[in-house]
Structure to design on (281 residues):
């Protein structure tokens, strides 16, 4: 086959797979909208408190505006970066040369979800947090700002994107973040050894079944009975849903919360295992 024809066919295959994933995600979103519970459908005191008090939209913080101003700058930044993407790829572009604005539109966590993570960290105050998938640093900024007395280690595969994220941290005067550059397979083990233990982990990168299971299995020995693991994009694709379903069924996790855009796994010891499908306030 002619190399150019092979490249064109490969591109169509990639686009077809991406469209199939988005169709799958859309179907699951509709199902989630129909079956998810609000606070009055929850009988767990801990979960009820999380929904009605911790994650409440009324819990606004002045840092939100500061971080969202940085998001606006990224969305209007037309400078071009040479990107190395070791994950499942971008929803918008597979090109190596990509505008910052395109990366921002594709990869950044929504303000609503990022602020929910901020509220979780502000409530539980983890001392040592881990993020897999720094991207441009917006979610990392929320996690770091939520607990200035804690420290966040964040991993990013692409050095140029990590550098851009560091400029966001500098602009926001964030000094409790350590950013590791390189493939997760190369940086995760060493980072965990440096951290010694993990109170809170946010996994947002390489949205495939095998890597997701591997990352959680690698992190678990460094967790305690009070640790929390958050998986982003649990309905990104059928593979991600399968990984989420397998993990939440494990005996290590006594409580799991499905907010569609992300899922939360609690290692806290509880009398019985519980799972809730919830609307994000």
């Amino acid at each position: 086959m002619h190399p150019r024809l092979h490249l064109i066919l490969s591109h169509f295959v990639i686009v077809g797979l991406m469209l199939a994933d988005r169709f799958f995600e859309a179907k699951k979103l509709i199902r989630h909208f129909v079956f998810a519970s609000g606070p009055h459908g929850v009988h767990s005191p801990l979960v009820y408190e999380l929904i009605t008090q911790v994650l409440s939209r009324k819990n606004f913080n002045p840092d939100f505006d500061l971080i969202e101003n940085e998001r606006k700058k990224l969305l209007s930044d037309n400078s071009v970066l040479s990107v190395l993407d070791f994950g499942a790829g971008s929803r918008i572009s597979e090109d190596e040369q990509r505008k910052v604005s395109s990366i921002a539109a594709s990869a950044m966590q929504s303000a609503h979800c990022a602020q929910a993570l901020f509220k979780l960290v502000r409530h539980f105050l983890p001392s040592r947090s881990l993020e897999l998938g720094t991207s441009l640093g917006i979610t990392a900024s929320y996690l770091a700002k939520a607990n200035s007395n804690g420290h966040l280690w964040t991993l990013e595969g692409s050095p140029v994107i990590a550098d851009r994220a560091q400029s966001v941290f500098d602009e926001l005067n964030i000094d409790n973040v350590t950013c590791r550059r390189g493939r997760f397979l190369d940086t995760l083990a060493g980072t965990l050894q440096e951290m010694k233990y993990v109170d809170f982990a946010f996994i947002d990168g390489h949205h495939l079944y095998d890597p997701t299971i591997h990352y959680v299995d690698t992190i678990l020995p460094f967790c305690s009975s009070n640790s929390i693991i958050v998986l982003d994009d649990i309905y990104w694709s059928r593979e991600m849903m399968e990984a989420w379903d397998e993990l939440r069924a494990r005996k290590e996790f006594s409580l799991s919360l499905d907010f569609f855009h992300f899922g939360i796994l609690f290692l806290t010891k509880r009398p019985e295992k519980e799972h809730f499908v919830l609307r994000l306030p």
Observations:
- Residues 39-277 form a domain with the Rossmann fold fold (CATH 3.40.50.150).
- The chain has one domain: 39-277.
- Confidence is low (pLDDT under 50) at residues 1-17, 89-95.
